[in-house]
Amino acid sequence: MIRSTHLPLLITIATFLLAYTLCASQYPAMLSTRVVANLLTDNAFLGIAAVGMTFVILSGGIDLSVGSVIAFTGVFLAVILRDTSIHPIAAFVLVLAITISFGAAMGAMIHYLDMPPFIVTLAGMFLARGAAYVLSTESVPITHEFYDTLQSLYWKAPGGGRFRLTGMIMLLTFLTGIIVAHRTRFGQNVYAIGGGLSTARLMGVPLAKTTIGIYATSGGLAGLAGIIFSLYTSAGYSLATVGVELDAIAAVVIGGTLLTGGTGFVAGTFFGILIMGLIQTFIVFDGTLSSWWTKIVIGGLLFGFILLQKGLTWATTLRRKPATEFAAQS
Amino acid sequence: MSAHVHSTFRRIMPQLIILIAVLFLNFLVFPDFFRIEFQHGRLFGNLIDVLNRGAPTALLCIGMTLVIATKGIDLSVGAVMAIAGAVAASLVVDGHSWQTALLGALAVGAICGLWNGVLVAVLRIQPIVATLVLMVAGRGIAQLVTEGTILTFVNPGLIHLGAGTVIGIPTPILIWIALGLLVTAVVRKTALGMLIEAIGINESSSRLAGINSRVLIVSVYLISGFCAALAGVIVAADIKGADANNAGLWLELDAILAVVIGGNSLLGGRFSILASLIGALIIQSVNSVILLSGMPPEFNLVIKALIIIAILVIQSPTVKHALYILRASAEPLPSDPIKEAKESPQ
Which segments cross the bilayer (chain B) (predicted)? Predict the structure, then answer.
């Protein structure tokens, strides 16, 4: 029998398949490997950031700094590759170290100063965006042969679709995320904290270590997303990726994760990303719909999935009620 | 009465000290900061600018304070501003009077607030998710109204709301002060404020005590939507156009920050609209000090972020508790089992 906790995930997958079938029935070209490959490439950076966001939301927190960290990473890479002669790989390591410590610092503030994640990451969002401005207010192009090499890496599928390295890194991130969430002690601790902070404390979950770890993961993955974004655009711009954190949160919610924490799946986020990408692809294919319909449809979808989760929670508690009454009587 | 004034003063003391400190910083970098002149029938001066430019955030934080007091949050206010501005602009462009445009925009804002309120109070969706829907979809709706363009208008009545003056004082200042006084009077002269606080502290017990929490929660979101619409009209009137993409962008974050700097807990409960308004002025004064100091504009956000982090750390529960311990260390304290359990090794 299907467990009710898996139901939101299954419904997300079903929605994606249904939407894809509907799109394909109208535009058969959407079945081509080109569209599939572009769906992965175009959403690679968002997907990676959303994996980090899933962990944060599973723990009952929120990370508003993601979009700014992506922009900071892009500008940092562009400036450091322009002004120094260090190899991009060294620059990648450096920027990941910065973003991981940035996330860890936010996690430490949340835990030790007992402040709400919303406000701490809001300040982090201003700080990261501001740091990007300080580095450069203009768009800085990246011209390094190593970037060209990375960008030219792809596997050409029959039908002309190019599965690029960036899309593969996103898939790999999702796989790692799924394993970490469900098969490691850290993942269990994240779910425990999301289920209830005081319960987790009584269970002996190392709160400080886990909270700092969660936000460091989110910061690090936002840094990785920034690297992917800079590969995608070949430039660093401090005004780029404004509001990406909202897209990431929307993908996580559409993917069936509860914003209260404790319930959800990393795999659901993957389908959330695909659904959002599909809407954009459909609007491009249609050609007559204006871009603002993307926002309205995503808002509507969000609403639909939230209602669905409410309905499910309501149905399961309703079903359980007679059982507890029976238990109380006996 | 004097006891009441005294307790209010005690409540807003930290915010006042921070505001005075930031204003003094303004004075240090720009000695003419406090000079106010009367020219061409209106008041001029940096202090007036702070009050005037702070109007949108101040208006938003009136509604936001009430929402946060019920343990909620309203992320949609920026998007509602964009919708209201778009509605007002499209109404005057279609030849309606500015009164109709204002009423139309306020009505749309109230409807947006009603939608949020119903999602939170009736469907029992978490506030952050419920208002996220409108935050994401709202700008799309605003673009739908303006059909993707920046709608400009020349209606003098509407422009007066954002750029005009009444007896020498810029209209936005009068609007936010009047609305702030009105809402404070309504919640404090009646039991409404106390009931809202009761909901924020414990909703189930407040409902058991006979409070109609559903209606009250819907109405605080409605007020928030109304305030956002008013702010949206003022911003649109100020630039004589409705920009669906940028009007009120990230202002919801400034408004939430103003409420938090005002010392109101994000976990609901006791609130002070006056303190939130001072919080909004602190944010605007920080912006002003960065501008006046003549530092390169690139540094604005970093400095703003650092100042905000400093204010938040000072107000964080842990630091407050440490200060309390420090102050009370002269007398023996009863042991605090929760704190001890938290600090004992895992």
Answer: 12-30, 50-68, 75-93, 99-121, 128-146, 158-187, 215-237, 274-295, 301-319
Q: Which residue of B244, B297, B305 is in closest CB contact with A123?
A: B305
Which of A296, A307, A310 minimises the CB distance to B141? A296
Are B316 and A246 a contacting pair at CB < 8 A? no
Instruction: Using the CB atoms, write b or e for B16-41: b if 16+ within 10 Å.
Output: eebbeebbebbeeebeebeeeeeeee
Q: Tell me if B47 sits within 8 A of B33, measured CB to CB.
A: yes
Q: Is the pLDDT of residue A132 over 90?
A: yes
Asked if A130 lies within 8 A of B302 by C-beta distance, the reply is yes
Q: Which two tokens stand for residue A165?
A: 């390295």
Q: In this complex, do A126 and B303 lie within 8 Å of one another by their Cβ atoms?
A: no
- Which tens digits make up the pLDDT trace of A78-111? 999 999 888 999 999 999 999 999 999 999 999 9
Q: Report the distance separating Cα A189 and Cα A201, nearest Å.
A: 10
Distances from the Cα of B210 to the Cα of B26, B199, B205, angstroms: 49, 11, 9
- Total residues belonging to chain A: 330
Backbone angles phi, psi at B148, to 5 degrees: 80, 0
Q: Is the dihedral of CA B119, B275, B62, B230 positive or negative?
A: negative
Task: Report the pLDDT averaged over residues B89-100.
Answer: 92
Classify residue A264 as left (phi > 0), alpha (psi -120 to 50) or beta. left
What is the model's pLDDT at position A1? 43
Identify the CATH assignment for B9-312 out of 1.10.3470, 1.10.1660, 2.40.128, 3.30.379.
1.10.3470
Q: How far is CA A329 from CA A204, B61, B196, in A?
A: 34, 51, 39
Q: Which distant-in-sequence residues (6+ apart) come within 8 Å of A313 by Cβ?
A: none
Look at residues A257, A49, A272, A54 and name the one whose alpha carbon lies nearest to residue B126. Answer: A257
User: Of how many residues is chain B composed?
Assistant: 346
3-state secondary structure of A8: helix
Record the tokens describing residue B45, joined without a space: 């001066």
Place of tokens 């929760």: B338
**β B165-166/B241-242 pair status:** unpaired
- Give this complex's ipTM: 0.77
Neighbours of B95 (CB within 10 A): 8
Kindly state the tokens that stand for B95.
Answer: 């030849």
**Domains of chain A in sequence order:** 4-320 (1.10.3470)
